Structure formats: C-alpha cells, structure tokens
Amino acid sequence: MNDILPPDSARWEWLEDKVRGLMQRYAYRNIRTPIVEPTPLFVRGLGEVTDIVEKEMYSFEDRLNGEQLTLRPEATAGVVRAVVESNLLYDGGKRLYYMGPMFRHERPQRGRYRQFHQIGAEALGFHGAEVDAELILLADALWKELGLQNVRLELNSLGQPEERRAHRAALIAYFEQNLELLDEEAKRRLHSNPLRILDTKNPAMQALVQLAPRLLDFLGEASRTHLDTVTSILDANGVAWSINPRLVRGMDYYNLTVFEFITDQLGSQGTICGGGRYDYLIEQIGGKAAPAVGWALGVERVLELVKEAGLATVTPVPDAYAVVPDAATLPLVSSVVQALRGAGVSVQMHSPSGAAGEGMGSMKSQFKKADASGARFALIFGADELAQGQVTVKSLRDGSGAQTTQSLSAAAQWATLLQSTD
C-alpha cells in the first residue's frame, strides 16, 4: 500500500475531473459504497473458486458481533447490494459510476498495489446490447479524453448458462484427455471452474489452451445476435475491436458480453479496463431479477500509461503569491487575500517556514518563493503601498515584470486580472 503525495496527487485529481465530466455527459450518476462489506457478499457474487475469494481477500471477524467482514476487492458486488437494499430500480434502470480504493492480497507489481483504486461504471436494469456498446464507447471516449492512443479492445461472449454448461462439459472432457499437460493449478480447477484454465499465464500450457473448445462455438442464435449488435454499434462509431475467444474475466458473475482494454506498454499488467454483462448477479445477491452491465478501470495503471505516453497533466499552481514584508500587516493582508479567494482567485500567502521569531523573511527570499510556487503574479503588500490603500501586482511569468497598483478595498473588482486563462 502506498501514499499518494503532491505533486503526484494532482495527476489523480486531473484524471478524476476528466472522469466526472465524461460521466455527466453520458448521464451516469455517482454512487459511494462502504469499503467494508460482509464477506458472504463477495463469496456469492464473485464465486467461491475465484482467485480473489480463495487467495486475495482481506477478511476478518468483527470483534463485537463475530460477523465476517472483508475489505472490498472490487466494487460491483457492493454497488449491486446497495441498489438492491435501496430498491433503486423500482422506477427503471440506473446508470451509476464510482471511484475508490479496493484491496487484494497479491504480489505488488507495476501499477498494482495491495490497496489499489478503481473507477467504474455500471448500467443496471437494461437488457439491450446497445447498453453494452454504450459502456464500451464511454471507456473509449475516456482514452481519447486523456490522449491515450495505444489501447486496443478485445471482446468475447460467455453466452448464457445453458450454453456455458455445454461448453463446460466439452472443456472438462478435453482437459481430462490432456491431464499430463496441466499444471497443479489447472488440475485443481478442472472440475470446479474449468473456464478459468483458459486464462492461465503458464507458458507451457498456452498451446493446449489455444486448441481447447471455444465457447463461441456453443452460442445460440440469441447470444450471437447480442454480440453482433454490440460490434455493429462499435463499427458505426469507428471503434476498432477484435474477438478473443479465450477472454473469460476473473469473476463468475459475467454472461454474454465481456471485454478488456489492453495496452502493450505496461508489460504483463496490460489490462487497464475490463468488464461485461452480469444479468444474474442482482438476483444472486437477493434482489428481484434484473440485467446489468459494467466495467472498472485501474487508476494506477491508467496513470502509469499516461506517464509512459508522456502526456501532460495539470499541476495546480496559485494565481498569485502574497509578499508580506511586515508581520504587523498580516490582519489587513489576510482580509484582502480572503476577498480575492472569495472572488475565485487562488492565492498563496507567504508564511515563514523557519524557526519562530525569524520574521517574514527578506523581500528577495519571498520573491524566490513566489517564483517557485508557479504563481503568475506577486501581490506586494509593502509599507508604501499600504499607506496609500493599495497593493502592487507584479507579473512573474511573461518576462516583462510589469507592475500595476490596485485598491485594497476593491479586491473583488480586479480579481479577474489574476485568474488563469489556461
């Protein structure tokens, strides 16, 4: 787990601001759920034999009542629980999004920590394949908004339960004929969750997996039509895609469309966003049967990709830096600075960082700090200026060093002169 400190935290705020603006344009509304949930929620929702439930969850017993609790390893199950408990679908489908920390006990890797952060979008209560496509278009729009280019989209369909059952039987039969080629993990999964064998990272098993029965070949007409509708909408919007018949995702709750956005620029941690349709999870968690589809992206991975691509992010700097030669003037100066802040100007007021009793520091040292702050202007509250009820506004960034004087009593009227136009 790691701290996120300035100036890196500014990159997080930049990404979050981009996401909020995009979600608003797509009519998705924010939902915030607890970090701690009952452990059975994830066991039911994600699947008892998934890696997350078996190996990665941080679970503990509540000392007050003995309840089994877990730090959320993902957010979809919690969002569904909240929707069910609040009867949120009583008047129709809902489009929701979230941001926040998740927790998995796994080996830390580039762009992945044991506390990591996800941003996700969920559309609950909608049957149509067009909503699957809408969510994919939403993610694709985010990459464009961030300036990311080397991201590819892979799709698959997991069909419906009866189609998966037929494929599962064929898959088990195929792997049983090749037991000597399976590693211990695959043998353990063979009868509990054979679909997850297709997601193996073992190089020695890749050839075997490539020849395994494909779920796509077991799809009925309705499932094929659903996938065709998704891809036709993507084509109409100029979004490139490819079918990956081995794409299964890591949770048991998916059906029909599954997808991942992948980059080759982050090594083995190439998936930056993934999701799909989960029409049975709401009922599984205790609600009235309703369809749903969603995705989640890894914030650390996306920001690593932004950094790798050399894309600029905004580092917040103040509009102005208040130079205060005399500590006795601080009450008056602070009232002017507050008026400017109230008018929308970002102002950093000088405050000495040395030992107590050293005073405010020389004008020269204050100007050095003003320049280092990145502020576009210095506000000079010198004795001569204050005697005339004025402040000197000095330009710091255009090379001219131009100065003007402004009235202390009318700060709100000239505040716009200081605001950044970037």
TrEMBL record:
Gene3D superfamilies: Anticodon-binding domain, Bira Bifunctional Protein, Domain 2. Keywords: Aminoacyl-tRNA synthetase, ATP-binding, Cytoplasm, Ligase, Nucleotide-binding, Protein biosynthesis. It catalyses: tRNA(His) + L-histidine + ATP = L-histidyl-tRNA(His) + AMP + diphosphate + H(+). GO terms for molecular function: ATP binding; histidine-tRNA ligase activity. Pfam families: HGTP_anticodon, tRNA-synt_His. L-histidine binds at residues 74-76, 104, 118, 122, 249, 253-254. GO terms for biological process: histidyl-tRNA aminoacylation. It comes from the Bacteria. It is found in: Cytoplasm. Its main location: cytoplasm. Residues 15-325 form the Aminoacyl-transfer RNA synthetases class-II family profile domain. GO terms for cellular component: cytoplasm. Its EC number is 6.1.1.21. It is an enzyme of class 6 (ligase). HAMAP family: His_tRNA_synth. Belongs to the class-II aminoacyl-tRNA synthetase family. Homodimer. This is Histidine--tRNA ligase. The lineage of its organism: Bacteria, Pseudomonadati, Pseudomonadota, Betaproteobacteria, Burkholderiales.
